[in-house]
Design a protein that fits this description.
alpha+beta, five-stranded mixed sheet, 15% helix, disordered N terminus
Length: 123
């Protein structure tokens, strides 16, 4: 009987709890969640050199002027990491937003790494 009560409680509460849980992050995507219009939010992604050669970052670009990015180190030894700071300015946006950050490197196998930022801009 006790197990049935726990199961029923879980069954009815799961949709409520699930609606407010933040989406899992995969390392390449960051969801800021709800952001007040006009606010600037910041996140740092980690870029790791998983090759056996020195990795050089040639350029960082974003899909719009609302996102600015900068990298701490442009040359990474094998196995080393650096941070990419991304600022998103929500001014002029409303509703769901998704923007991209492209990291262009000298890697022949993976010359471009794409990071994604998301937000739900509210007034």
């Amino acid at each position: 009987m006790k197990h049935k009560v726990i199961f029923l409680a879980f069954l009815f509460l799961w949709p409520i709890v699930g609606c407010y849980a933040q989406q899992p992050q995969d390392g390449f995507t960051w969801d800021f969640g709800k952001v007040r219009q006009g606010k600037v939010v910041v996140h740092e992604f980690t870029l790791k050199n998983e090759t056996k050669k020195i990795l050089k970052v040639n350029d960082l670009t974003t899909s719009c002027g609302c996102a600015a990015s900068k990298i701490k180190e442009k040359t990474l030894a094998p196995g080393k990491s650096t941070f990419i700071e991304v600022k998103f300015n929500s001014k002029g946006y409303s509703g769901p937003v998704q923007q991209y950050i492209y990291v262009n490197t000298d890697s022949l196998d993976n010359p471009v790494t794409k990071f994604i930022i998301k937000a739900d801009v509210v007034k």
